[in-house]
Amino acid sequence: MANFLLIIFVYGCFSLLLASATKCERNHVKCRDGIQCVFHGFLCDGLNNCDDQSDEDEDFCKANICQDGYVKCQDNLQCVRAIALCDGYHSCRDNSDEDQDFCRATKCKEPYEKCKDGLQCVHYAFKCDGDYDCRDQSDEDEDAC
Ligand SMILES: [Ca+2]
Ligand SMILES: [Ca+2]
Ligand SMILES: [Ca+2]
Description:
22% helix; 145 residues; 3 helices; alpha+beta; two-stranded antiparallel ribbon
């Protein structure tokens, strides 16, 4: 029995070692435990993905530079997709991505366009597609379509 437990223990250590020596697959990074791999877009996205929660560690996220296509919320911690800015849905925990003053001053990135309210950005393909995408319904405005 003792031998059996020893084998289990050694095997456990070995697989831990092996796991920590293994690289993550493409676009994935290690958690602080050095074992678990998570998608890089999950770093500082506001949800715990690492079992040790290191992907949302405050100090780490403060220093973290968001991946390409992602931007920091005003809290300087959370990264959200750049296209989530002013899209009408709250993505930042602090709601800064939908802040009225911020959105009014923000230009939509192509291929997104402003709704008439001057706040919300919607994909140009959603213009005149028969569904309301702007909160003010200006994307289906009869005169504009
Ligand atoms: Ca996360
Ligand atoms: Ca948003
Ligand atoms: Ca539409």
